[in-house]
From TrEMBL:
Gene3D superfamilies hit by this protein: 2.60.120.200
Record Pfam families: DUF1349
Protein name per Swiss-Prot or TrEMBL: DUF1349 domain-containing protein
InterPro entries recorded: ConA-like_dom_sf, DUF1349
Lineage top rank: taxon: Bacteria
Length: 204
């Protein structure tokens, strides 16, 4: 499948990178990464190796502020397996909000790549699922996580690229299995809101 429309989203999605076996049924989006698939440029590394990629399903975000929300569940099998909300601004400008096995316990993790990637662990998660939210607010992007989809914990605020590049951002979903033989993740309760969060830090 190279393109798909989800009824929850006001934009079409297209697949990028390796084949992700993306499927959508009954409000649930499923994707799979193959062995050793990841999208990460190690700090101090010069390039994103051609083989260092992971399945992505992305679409052009509408103008203005927004929130992309999903409950992410991951079939963890190896360290750093993850389901991800993904933001793409440029070939070397992108970010990930992950539910990741990092390396022994499910954890909310973030990566922001500006030529090279950083890597930040946030909160440990009980179980194999968590709500994640990617937002654009003005000239910045925000990451949040939630146990129930109601009260949100602030994770990160950052910017990427130029104003023109940010306006043309693509957003969506990614699955990775950097050290393992493969990983499957599901995304349900998917929602898109054409506005940013009212307050980044008050739980709303």
């Amino acid at each position: 499948m190279t393109a798909v429309r989800l009824p929850e989203l006001p934009f079409a999605l297209e697949s990028h990178g390796p084949e992700g076996e993306w499927a959508y049924e009954g409000g649930v989006l499923t994707g799979s990464a193959g062995a050793k698939q990841d999208r990460f440029v190690p700090p101090g590394g010069d390039t994103l190796e051609p083989a260092s990629d992971a399945p992505r399903l992305l679409g052009a975000a509408p103008d203005g502020d927004f929130q992309l929300i999903a409950r992410v569940s991951v079939g963890f099998a190896a360290a750093f397996d993850a389901g991800v909300l993904y933001l793409h601004v440029g070939e070397r400008e992108w970010a990930k909000l992950c539910l990741e096995l990092s390396p022994e316990r499910p954890t909310v993790c973030t990566v922001v790549t500006r030529g090279q990637s950083d890597d930040v662990n946030s909160a440990v998660v009980e179980g194999d699922s968590c709500w994640l939210r990617l937002s654009r607010t003005g000239g910045a992007f925000a990451f949040h996580a939630s146990a129930d989809g109601e009260r949100w914990t602030f994770v990160r605020l950052f910017t990427l690229g130029t104003e023109e590049e940010r306006a043309a951002a693509r957003i969506g979903f990614l699955v990775q299995s950097p050290t393992g033989d493969g990983c499957t993740a599901t995304f349900d309760r998917i929602a898109f809101r054409p506005n940013g969060p009212g307050d980044l830090r008050d739980g709303s």
